[in-house]
């Protein structure tokens, strides 16, 4: 049984981009040379555009097919990452290990850091991020303040906050969960 299946729903990305530009289907159809009914079917996931058609739609929307695919929603995805899966990210060293806990292109990213990493490296993410210390201890510098985190502590950082962190214990294990960089976060204080 295949435990990992991902089908991208590009229609949702096309619709979001079209609405962001405040364009009608008729305008996109005229710009792309595709029909309004076909574009409607694409947006409603009843038709899958060929690579060439997707490129034409992307051109009409002032973007690229790659960007539309990057912004596409996964359709009914279930993805299991087992503890012994070899899913390492760049940045690990012999003393450290960085493991991607969510594969593919989703709205949520999660990574596990074991050990330390380049403590001089500063991060600034577009969207919100959560750091959870599974084991050991770390120190995080954010907005000019230092935060000491131990096992079970959580630090939430809103998008745009510059920060860096370092392990202060040899057995440090940190879970980082973040909203995907391709997601346009909306700052809505009404909720």
UniProtKB/TrEMBL annotation:
GO MF, one example: DNA binding
Domain of life: Bacteria
Keyword DNA-binding appears in the UniProt entry: yes
Cellular component aspect of the GO annotation: cytosol
Domain HTH cro/C1-type, first and last residues per copy: 14-68
Keyword DNA-binding carried by entry: yes
One Pfam family recorded for the sequence: HTH_3
Keyword field: DNA-binding
PANTHER family: HTH-TYPE TRANSCRIPTIONAL REGULATOR, METHYLPHOSPHONATE SYNTHASE
Stated name of the protein: HTH cro/C1-type domain-containing protein
